[in-house]
Write a structure and sequence with these properties.
The protein has 177 residues and is α+β, with helices and mostly antiparallel strands. The chain has a single domain, classed as 3-Layer(aba) Sandwich (Aminopeptidase). The protein has 5 helices and 7 strands. Strands 1-2-3-4-5-7-6 form a 7-stranded mixed β-sheet, sandwiched between helices. A hairpin with a 2-residue loop joins strand 6 and strand 7. Helix 1 crosses helix 3. The N and C termini lie far apart (37 Å).
């Protein structure tokens, strides 16, 4: 099982190049799963990625990475962002979940998300966590549901790729309230 071969930890500035490359791979291989385009990502300098990866759990902004223990290679990621304003800081958002295809169906996504949720639960004032997932991403939808997320809506034509559209399922995990 992959779980014994994987280490999950918070990404830092030193992981910027690995994150940038894995994010690019995700955008290229799964364009229907991400809001950002390949072109937008390529414009972002690794230095800017490093600055963004300095976020902390205490400030409600962090990215977790799944690394192979034997090669210390980044093979998966999941981000978390807490809304900052006083009227909306009770909400958080999971974003950018991606696992390389050869590591899928081995529990890596579950490990990543379990750690994101564990850390998110330590954030004061956080009451709910949202995410959006393409309706055709059935494995991801099942994973989120198994972690307690419930569908509360659908964003029709959420993304446009050329002449086609992607609908997204809006999901929510209530922590309290």
């Amino acid at each position: 099982m992959a779980e014994s071969e994987i280490e999950v930890r918070k990404l830092g500035a030193e992981d910027a190049q690995s994150f940038w490359q894995l994010r690019l791979a995700g955008l290229e291989q799964e364009p229907r799963a991400f809001t950002e385009s390949v072109e937008e990502h390529r414009k972002m300098a690794v230095d800017e990625v490093a600055r963004r990866l300095k976020g902390t759990v205490a400030h409600g902004n962090f990215v977790m990475g799944a690394f192979t223990k034997n090669e210390d290679r980044l093979v998966g990621m999941a981000g978390f962002f807490q809304r900052p304003g006083p009227k909306i800081r009770h909400r958080g958002l999971i974003w950018g979940v991606y696992v390389q295809s050869e590591w899928r169906k081995q529990g890596v996504g579950r490990l990543l998300l379990a750690e994101v949720l564990r850390l998110a639960r330590t954030i004061p004032d956080l009451e709910q966590i949202h995410l959006a997932v393409a309706t055709d991403q059935s494995a991801a939808r099942r994973l989120y549901a198994s972690l307690g997320f419930e569908t509360y809506g659908r964003d029709v034509h959420a993304l446009k790729l050329g002449d086609s559209y992607v609908d997204e399922e809006l999901m929510l995990l209530q922590l309290k309230g």
